[in-house]
């Protein structure tokens, strides 16, 4: 039985729709007005082994901030909803993801507590319409709304496309592995995640 969610957010600034199935590898469709963001979300969802659809519309066209932030909110909510009661999940996972000269650590704890600690040391202004200041903002906002603890840290890298892509791929892999059902108990001594 697949774990999935469909979440929509409609504000004066954006309209975001997300469908996410975390147990069925399949089609990934991403459409936002930000080309590099589309590329990163596609990479992340592909490495999550998910079926997914993200449609994001920018109603005001100020800049990329609202689309990135609201997509992170809705995608985070969808992931949290798809997890269900979290019974039997692995909960923790971490990976060093290389991409050519770049090496990025991503560590995930499906803790029920949203927190993102992001250290990518990005210097470039933007890539393909995505402001580099919005990369850590996306990760933090996603983590908060997904109810996960997320650490992302660059260990090496000069090409910022490679650094950012390693982070998104590492997040996809980590979310997939941490959300796998490995037994029939809740993975906490507290009795609640």
TrEMBL record:
<keyword id="KW-0028">Amino-acid biosynthesis</keyword>
<dbReference type="InterPro" id="IPR020565">
    <property type="entry name" value="ImidazoleglycerP_deHydtase_CS"/>
</dbReference>
<comment type="similarity">
    <text>Belongs to the imidazoleglycerol-phosphate dehydratase family.</text>
</comment>
<dbReference type="Pfam" id="PF00475">
    <property type="entry name" value="IGPD"/>
</dbReference>
<protein>
    <recommendedName>
        <fullName>Imidazoleglycerol-phosphate dehydratase</fullName>
        <ecNumber>4.2.1.19</ecNumber>
    </recommendedName>
</protein>
<dbReference type="GO" id="GO:0000105">
    <property type="term" value="P:L-histidine biosynthetic process"/>
</dbReference>
<keyword id="KW-0456">Lyase</keyword>
<keyword id="KW-0368">Histidine biosynthesis</keyword>
<keyword id="KW-0963">Cytoplasm</keyword>
<dbReference type="GO" id="GO:0004424">
    <property type="term" value="F:imidazoleglycerol-phosphate dehydratase activity"/>
</dbReference>
<dbReference type="InterPro" id="IPR038494">
    <property type="entry name" value="IGPD_sf"/>
</dbReference>
<dbReference type="InterPro" id="IPR000807">
    <property type="entry name" value="ImidazoleglycerolP_deHydtase"/>
</dbReference>
<dbReference type="GO" id="GO:0005737">
    <property type="term" value="C:cytoplasm"/>
</dbReference>
<comment type="pathway">
    <text>Amino-acid biosynthesis; L-histidine biosynthesis; L-histidine from 5-phospho-alpha-D-ribose 1-diphosphate: step 6/9.</text>
</comment>
<dbReference type="InterPro" id="IPR020568">
    <property type="entry name" value="Ribosomal_Su5_D2-typ_SF"/>
</dbReference>
């Amino acid at each position: 039985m697949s774990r999935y969610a469909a979440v929509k957010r409609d504000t004066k600034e954006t309209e975001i729709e997300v469908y996410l199935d975390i147990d069925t590898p399949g089609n990934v469709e991403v459409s936002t007005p930000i080309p590099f963001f589309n590329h990163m979300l596609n990479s992340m969802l592909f490495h999550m082994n998910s079926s997914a659809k993200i449609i994001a519309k920018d109603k005001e066209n100020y800049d990329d901030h609202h689309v990135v932030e609201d997509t992170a909110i809705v995608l985070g909510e969808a992931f949290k909803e798809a997890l269900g009661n979290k019974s039997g999940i692995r909960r923790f996972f971490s990976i060093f993801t290389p991409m050519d000269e770049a090496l990025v650590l991503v560590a995930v704890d499906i803790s029920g507590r949203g927190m993102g600690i992001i250290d990518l040391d990005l210097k470039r202004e933007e890539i393909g319409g995505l402001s580099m200041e919005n990369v850590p903002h996306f990760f933090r906002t996603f983590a908060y709304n997904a109810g996960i603890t997320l650490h992302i840290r660059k260990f090496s890298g000069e090409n910022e496309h490679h650094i950012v892509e390693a982070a998104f791929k590492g997040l996809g892999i980590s979310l997939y592995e941490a959300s796998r059902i490995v037994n029939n108990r809740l993975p906490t001594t507290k009795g609640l995640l």
